Amino acid sequence: MKLKTLAVAVTAATISSSAFALDFNGYFRAGFGVNADGGSQRCYGTGGPNAHVVGRLGDECDTYAELALSQAVVERPTGEKFSIHTLMAFGTYEDWQGGTDTRGNSWQGVTGEAPADPWSGQRMSFREAYGKYIMASGTEIWAGNRYYGRKDVHINDWYYVNGSGYGFGVDNINVGLGQIAVAVRHTKWHDVSAGADANNTMASTPIVDLRWKGVDIGLGSLDLIAMAGKANLSDAQEAGVADGQWNDKTGVSLTAEWALGFAGGFNKLVAQYNTEGFAWAGYGMNNHLGDSYNIGANGGGDAQLGRKSWRIIDHGVYNFGRSVDLGYSVFFSKVDDDCCDAGPGERYGATLRPRYKWNDTMSTQLEVGYYSQQDPWESVSSEINKVTLAQAWSPLKEKGGFWARPEIRVFVTKYGGDKRSDGTGEDGGWMGVRVVENNDLFYGAQVEAWW
Known about the structure:
Layout (H helix, E strand, L loop, with lengths): L1 H20 E14 L28 E12 L5 E11 L2 E2 L4 E2 L21 E12 L5 E7 L4 E3 L4 E4 L3 E10 L4 E11 L13 E14 L4 E9 L5 H8 L8 E12 L2 E11 L32 E12 L4 E13 L8 E13 L4 E13 L7 E12 L2 H4 L7 E11 L1 E2 L14 E2 L4 E10 L1
Parallel strand pairs: 22-23
Antiparallel strand pairs: 1-2, 1-24, 2-3, 3-6, 4-5, 6-7, 7-10, 8-9, 10-11, 11-12, 12-13, 13-14, 14-15, 15-16, 16-17, 17-18, 18-19, 19-20, 20-21, 21-24
């Protein structure tokens, strides 16, 4: 009995000491929408390849959650620190091109392939698993799989820079005027050899990621980001390059971001230039620039060879006083394709989310959005607009106004613009940017939270 008592005491002490160092944080959103013409909600942006081009409020058909656990393993009196970080993510399957809600009710599985019905499994991913060593100087060394250097427009769920994935890096190198970060990240692409090389069925593309952050220019600060990628192909995979199926050219992505903070908000002005495998993600409101490198070439159908894109973004939050604030984003982009001889393409749009705060808990939000798409490979241009009215309840007083979460919402959403009779995109519309007949008015409820 004494040995058992001792064992229980040691176990309890170990658990207790570990628990004090554990950091738990996360994010989730969940809700539903109903079609006023009958049926379920349709969403015109999914946060995937194309973000919510006219704003995410009232336009989210999925349930998504992230649960993160981190722990300081060793902390030395010198200030040095070793820590480990993990994050699990769950998401429902959605038909991202059709924008339809495929969730069931009451029970959601977390395993399985893309289901034929909403009860046969959902998505689950181990999205972060990395270790970090912080030196006494504050410089960090890390390796593993992680969210890295992400920059986003929240109201569009749009990551215009995203260096997430597997890699190794040195961060927070103090150079007096800002900080330097250097990382080498690794991405994979699909089977470029079409089975010709059984030992290398995935193409490897290392990406060098260089950042100069927080450069004080007197009026705000600058972040400068440069990424370069080139496919690391086997001999058999090189054969795919020779017949025009794959792109082995070096691509670059350049970003300059000017951030200006002010009472109750901020403004960020962003300029981007991208070539080759980075160019597609840097066009329009395409998402997650930098987390992969597209090696498709003109003969392979992806038409990345020789592609170039430009993008200008301005976004932020402005506080007009105690009762009114505004989240906003505007952008303009162009793409040049060497393959198509059809001239450059243009995509541009704007999203505004003004809000009136009735008290420390309740607010009314209006989100309006407009988006135009004129692609050289499409026979016609297309546009979409959206208006969402939402009543919301959140801890406005305690959690910082615009960013206060959790937020419980009820909403009604109306879409307009170019229409088609079904979801095929046969008339030139693509990526869900043309409104489908009888799928333009929805109402529902949602909760969004982070902690």
